[in-house]
Amino acid sequence: MPLFLPFLIVHIATGFAAVLVGVIPLVTRKGSRAHRLWGRLFAGLMAVLLICAWVMTALRFNTYFLALSATASLYLFSGVRVLRRKRPDLRIEDRARPLDWAATLGVICVGLWVLILLAAGRSDGPTTVSAALAVSALSVGAWDVWRFSAPGSWPFSPDLWTYEHLAKMLGAYSAVLSAFSGNFLAALPAPWSQLWPTVLFQCLIVGWIATKLVRKRRAVSCVG
Fold first, then answer.
1. What percent of the chain has pLDDT over 70?
2. Residue 210: exposed, middle, or buried by beta-carbon count in 10 A (0-12, 13-18, 19+)?
3. Among residues 92, 179, 95, which one has the least CA distance to residue 144?
4. Against a cut of 0.85, is the pTM above it?
5. What is the C-alpha to C-alpha distance for residues 165 and 209, in angstroms, rounded to an integer?
């Protein structure tokens, strides 16, 4: 299919670039100019990559690519948009917009569709990885629906946006790294060649957030 090839080339090129660029926001000081600059570049590369992924999925339907595209899209979109929703308890304009609802509910529908296809035996890729991606999309989507519906309720805190941004951007990076590993690190057995980034970054997310919470409590104790 002639139309497929140009999108594939751009997809692969931006994927390589995103894997390399995505490391820099992780190691630069959060909130610094360098962190914001490289973070925007990573988000831009991921946006181009995902647009190509959706087009390719439409041209050559595949349940695995569908699940991966949906999960990575929600991680990226929500991870960026949460920066505009820092204090929904104080400002109405910081609450979810129709665009946030549409994107989240759309991905939830895609996640459910993927699980239905897998249950019906219609798998065009690694079933285990596709199911894990679909469940991940549903989990993030359900979280966002809860946050949109009750922005000031538990577990809201003034710093919650920081943890959300961190978790979701790491999730987006792990998604592109999973695709990269699955395609180019053939020495690793399937499905672990695609699952190891998810396992690794989930552990990093938990450890990172736990560290930030401990530091915050220590700072409050010292002030007290």
1. 93
2. exposed
3. 95
4. yes
5. 11
